[in-house]
Structures are given as structure tokens and as C-alpha cells.
Amino acid sequence: MAPLVLALGEAEGIDSRVCVTGQHRQMLDDVMSAFSLRADYDLNIMRPNQSLSEVFSAVMTGIDPIIADYNPDYVLVQGDTATSTAAALAAFFRSVSVGHVEAGLRTGNLMSPWPEEANRRVTAVVTTRHYAPTSRARSALLKEGYPSDAVIVTGNTVIDGLLRMAANIAQPGELRRSLEVKYSWLDTSKRLVLVTGHRRESFGSGFRQICEALKTIGRRDDIQIVYPVHLNPNVRGPVFDHLRDAPNVFLIEPLNYPEFVYLMTRSYLILTDSGGIQEEAPALRKPVLVMRDTSERMEAVDAGVARLVTTDPARIVAGVERLLDVPAEHEAMSLGANPFGDGRASKLIVHDLLNVRRPQRPTDHITSANLLPTPEMHSRPSPPLSQPAY
Q1: Which one is catalytic: 200, 322, 344, 358?
Q2: 80 catalytically annotated
């Protein structure tokens, strides 16, 4: 959301505020610092061993009085997290319109990814403006019955942020020098395999299998595996247990955003289960192997810039070795077009918000009898607002 927040702040006629939930505090603070952002509201909801229901409840009860006090015309949420869905519902219960960034991603399997597939579907029901990253995502929303004039293909804002940061890193200066010094231990004679993993669906046996594959790949002397290990104990436990002493495998702490972008630019290929990285890697011309059974970003697979290798060790190893040992395979994946946008998504979203008619707000209190509207309810026009707030 960072590039969109910046674009909103630069737009005339918009008053915008930023609310964060405080999940993954260190990573959040790093990203806010990297983009020089400040939160107007910080819910600070995280507590040890919270269930998904507790997180969901904390977001809703935390953001509700903020929405009531600020009374925005839109609440903008991104992606498929509990935060996005809870905030969208809280806005809906206050009769505030919702703009969903990265809307329309679908696997078709409610249990994979879990619970993200359900989160994004529920969010769509209460969304007024659906900002789809691709034509495929737009088609998915149209098939579900959402009105065509409420679904706008923008590309994904993650590409906006990535290209901005990559350009900053490429410029001679303190940022680049500090990154080169910090990662001077990287062996330039070896190809860098960058790994990330955090998906809840892989907790347990999935991560054990991923570690088995990385241990096998690490036996090669022509590569370095760099794995910034997620803070979740369900990830850190198996990763450190299985890979602490593995050859050519470097387990490091989570990276701030500039550091991660820098390592992506240095990498030869990327192994990940991250949705965002499936979009970012092609923008940097880096082949990406996806360690999941399904993906809601099949555009990358169809474009030939990503491949699904699941968490099966044999498939992961085979996929990596194919890219390492067959130059033509690596070149083909590196040169494919990125289907997720060209870095203008934030500007397109702001343009839409400034030009769309303000949706009607019901004058009656919402009751349990009318909680779920039809998609058509979101498309009713009303007079334009001279200075919308987000």
C-alpha cells in the first residue's frame, strides 16, 4: 500500500489517513521507514498466541471507532489478510464504501490458500470499487456477478513500490553503498538462490519438505542459498532445526524492504511461497519457482515467468537444477513479460477515486436482516463530492 499512500498524499482534493494494525511490528516499521510514511492510527493488536478469530475481532473493534470519528468516504484495503477483510467489514457496518486493492485473485479452492481465499471472497462482497491487478482477476469478479463498471484493471501497486525502490538502489549514493557493505559476504563467483517462505498452509510437513529440498540444493558448490527466515515460530522452528548447519545455506533474519529488493536484484532465481514476490520477481527479470500447490497468480505461470513446484522436495530440486543447468530455460523465464503492471497502478487508483461518483449511504441503521447486499447495490451513482477523504 505504500506507493498508493504516497500517491493519495500527493493528490489535490484528497485528505487521507493511514491506519496500521501493528502485526509483525519490526517488518512494518522497516517498510514505513523505507517509504518515509507515518501512521495516523496504530491499533497495536498483536498478542502472543492469538487465534485468527482473535486477530479478526481485534481489528474490527480497533478500527470501528476510527472510522466513526474520521467518517471517510472510502476505506482502502489491500489483498487477502484478516486485516483487510475485518477492516472492510467494519467500514461496511458503518455504511462506508470500500476500495479493494489487488481484488479478484482466486484459486477456486476455498481451502487453498487458507484462509486467504475466503478472506478475499468475503472482502469482495462488501467492496464498492474493485481494483483488479490483471484482466484475469477482473474476469473472476465479473463471473461472480460484480458490476463491470465497478471493476477496474490497474496493475498491482506492489510493482509501483518495487520499481521506485529498485531505482533508488541503482543510484550511486549512501543507500547503495550501505547495502553493498552489509552484503559484502556474498560470493560473486556463485549464483544466488533467494528463498522466502511463510504460508500457513505449509506449516508442519510442508516446511520440513522445503528444508529437505534446500539441503539437497545446498550441496552444489556453484550456488549460495540465502533465506531470510520469517519471524513466525511455525517457520523458524523447522527451518533452523533442519538447515542450521547445511552447506551453502545462509539463514538470516528478516530483511527490511530495501535490503530485500537489493537481494532480489542480486539473485539468479527466487524460491518463494509469497504472492507478492510472484509479481515482483518478473518485474526484475528474475525466474520464480512457487512452493505451493496452487496459485491465485496464474498469469505469471501462463506468461512463463513463474512455475509451480509445490512443496515436494523432488519437484523443488528438479526445478532449481533445471534453471541452474540449462541456460536457455533461465533466459526464457527471465525475458517474459510481467503481467502485473508497469508501475502506474497507484496513479490509476487515485484517478478513479477522484472521478467516481460517491456511492449512496443508507440512512437507516443496518440490521441483521440486510447485512449482505447484492453487488448491484454498490454501483448506484450519487452526486460527486468535491473533497473526498480516504
Answers
A1: 200
A2: yes
Catalytic residue among 30, 116, 160, 212: 116
- Annotated catalytic residue 102: yes
Percent of the chain scoring above 90 in pLDDT: 74
Is 116 known to be catalytic? yes
Residue 273, C-alpha cell as written in the block: 511461497
- Model-wide pTM > 0.85: no
Distance CA 296, CA 44 (A): 30
Residue of 130, 138, 198, 242 with catalytic role: 198
Q: Mark whether 331 is an active-site residue.
A: no
Length of the chain, please?
Answer: 390
Candidates 120, 136, 220, 230; catalytic one: 230
Angle at alpha carbon of residue 101, lines to 372 and 337, rounded to 5°: 135
The pairing of beta strand 151-153 with beta strand 269-272: unpaired
Q: Residue 272: name the closest of 238, 234, 306 by CA.
A: 306
User: What pLDDT is recorded for position 362?
Assistant: 59
Residue 175: pLDDT band (50, 70, 90) is: very high
Strands 129-132 and 97-101 come out as: parallel
Classified as helix, coil or strand, 260 is helix
pLDDT in tens, 38-55: 999 999 998 888 999 999
Q: Which of 30, 73, 102, 279 is catalytic?
A: 102
Quick check: is 200 catalytic? yes
Cα–Cα separations (whole angstroms), residue 133 to 34, 105, 348, 355, 377: 24, 8, 11, 19, 23
3-state secondary structure of 231: coil
Residue 390 binned pLDDT confidence (cut-offs 50, 70, 90): low
Residues 6+ apart with CB under 8 A from 285: 334, 335
Query: Is 199 among the residues known to form the active site?
Result: no
pLDDT band (50, 70, 90) for residue 360? low
| ∠ Cα 178 220 224 (to 5°) | 10
Instruction: Read off the pLDDT of residues 234-265 as tens digits, 9 standing for 90 and up.
Output: 888 889 999 999 999 999 999 999 999 999 99
